[in-house]
Amino acid sequence: MQELEAATGRTAPASLAALRQKAERFNTVIDPEQIAQVALSYQE
After folding, report:
1. Is the CB of residue 12 less than 8 Å from the CB of residue 5?
2. Dihedral sign computed on CA atoms, order 30, 34, 36, 37
3. In terms of pLDDT, which residue wins out, 29 or 9?
4. pTM (two decimals)
């Protein structure tokens, strides 16, 4: 978000800026090629 603010010269909306104070909930990174496989595994 900070990079977008710097690149555009605009401040993030308050609703997005508030996310900076929130705890990170997810930290798993999935390769794009694996997205469908992972999504389908949650449906079973």
Report:
1. yes
2. negative
3. 9
4. 0.46
